[in-house]
Amino acid sequence: MNVLVYIENITGKFKKSTYEVVSYAAAIAKQTGGTLTAVSIGNVEANTLAEIGKYGASKILNVQQDSLSSFVNQAYASIISQAAKSVDATVVVLSNTFTGKGLAPRVAVKLAAGYVDGALELPTIAGNSFSVKRGAFSGKAFANVNLNSTIKVITLSPNAYQINDLGTTATIEDFNPSTGAHDFQTMVKEIIRASDKISLPDAELVVSGGRGLKGPENWGMIEELASLLGAATGCSKPVSDSGWRPHEEHVGQTGIAVAPNLYIAIGISGAIQHLAGVSSSKVIVVINKDPEAPFFKVADYGIVGDAFEVVPQLIEAVKVLKAQA
Amino acid sequence: MKILVCISNVPDTTTKITFNSNNTEFNTSGVQFILNPYDELALSKAIELTEGGNGSVTVVNVGLADTEPTIRKALAIGADDAIRVNAAPANAYFVAQQIAKIAKDGQYELILTGRESIDYNGAQTGAMIAEIMDMPSISIIKKLTIDANTATVEREIEGGKEVITVDFPFLASVTEGVAEPKIPNMRGIMSARTKPLQVVEAIAVDTLSSISSFDLPAARSTVKLISTNESAKLIEALHSEAKVI
User: How many domains does chain B have?
Assistant: First the structure.
């Protein structure tokens, strides 16, 4: 099966999730004996584009127009589906980022394709059956989804697939899709970045705080620990509901679902809704003064103790570790 | 303004998830169903935008008769009327086709959905409806303001946000921050019983995807406890044993 992967850039740069999705798409192409083509939209420099070749794309279709330098959902969806048709792709893969979530459903409709979002593993292909595993019930379960259509669209969860440098190279071709005024009904006026912060949804490490921290004024130590570890900061629902922290830090069933290598929960008891949002974490650490806190039941490491005593010790220990490195 | 809000009937957030028939069916026995929390935000925003007689809010749900308590809840919160498409929601594409049909017939200026349902979490239906209707869509917005004929929305992106302007009609899926959830008052609850709820039959749609089975997460190994005065050992274990830092 020929595979097309959309390589999402943010202001001309690729993020880790883009390399992950290329590696994933390359594995599907290999699995099915097809070739992998990547499509890039926006202003990405040639040497940055060429990097994508290392991960198994044999060709990169480059769409570079000023009108496409920032995200336009309808136009991008149209271009990706035109690219899919031009290379006879039967599998189209995108990252399950905020942008991917907006794009992929439109691409799927355009291609009359079945769509699985948030894939966690490579598809299981046997004869005509094509099945993909994804999360369901907000992290409380997994669903195996069969795609019955000729063309299949998949978005890959961040942190779900290992980046593989294959040492291959790709040719870069200009691709000229047809778009009309109709495709440009939204316009990005401004991009506001929290530049000093690590983004939570695709973070590898997360330090999260709950009501046990007693008030927003005590978040300094959470932020210090997170910054020393290179981690994103998160929080429980009561914390964001009380306005101690912004909504975009709310981890859980009705907030952000995360899948980091390490999730450190400090002063969070572990309500079922919060646990749902962290169940895909590889290692969970819980620090809580209540030994009966339900969070300990799903933790790999735990400290039963007061956050105000424990966290400063952890900060010192990380400093020592970093000094040794 | 005429607004359509798409609502989903989902298991309460505290539900313990189990499956029947060899893990092929969600076990709904004893499960309390609620209005999807993100859809509740979409509805709250729609009511806010039409306050003071400035338009109307219609809610639409694709579901069998057992979703009517959830639809009545939406009417109690403040929707003016409701439409139920009488079919089990087979998958997001099926639901999107049903709602697109309703939306075309109703000529709405704005369609709002929650960012995702908390059962299947697809975040698919909204953008699919917009694509079927050939209108703009913005997924996962946390702010929406309207000034004359232009709407300005803030969309979440990794590590920041985008401010976007868009012309009507359009569709947006919403997340926390877009509105404060509205709680039904007694008058709302009383009037919800008599507000119009129209039931329509579903149109036929190809089954592009289907769930073959479910799995539950593997149990985690027992927690390794470290004593408070040896907290530094945790960092050591994360570094040399778990190898995550």
Answer: 1
Q: What's the pTM? A: 0.94
Which of B141, B109, B41 is CA-nearest to residue A102? B141
Q: Determine, yes or no, domain membership for B136.
A: yes
A152-203 pLDDT tens trace: 999 999 999 999 999 999 999 999 999 999 999 999 999 998 767 788 988 9
Beta-carbon separation of A187 and B165 below 8 A? yes
CB-CB neighbours of B87 under 10 Å: 17
Residue of A nearest to B40 (CA): A254
CATH 3.40.50.1220 fits A205-324, yes or no: yes
Which residues make up the CATH 3.40.50.620 domain(s) of chain A? 3-183
Chain A residues inside the 8 Å CB shell of B207: 148
| Helix ranges, A44-138 (H) | 46-51, 73-86, 98-110
So what's the ipTM on this one? Answer: 0.95
**What CATH topology corresponds to A3-183?**
Rossmann fold (3.40.50)
Interface test with B, best of A16, A17, A72, A106 (most B CBs within 10 A): A106
Residue B157 sits in a domain whose CATH number is 3.40.50.620
Structural domain of B195: 2-214
Backbone torsions φ then ψ of B23, nearest 5 degrees: 65, 30
Domain assignment of residue B32, yes or no: yes
Structure-token pair, residue B204: 């036929």
**Amino acid, single-letter form, for residue B111:** I
Residue B105 host element (H or E): helix B92-106
Residues of chain A in contact with residue B130, where contact means CB-CB under 8 angstroms, are: 106
Across the interface, which of B118, B121, B244 has its CB nearest the CB of A283? B244
Q: Does B172 map to a domain? A: yes
- Partner-chain contact A300 B221, CB within 8 Å: yes
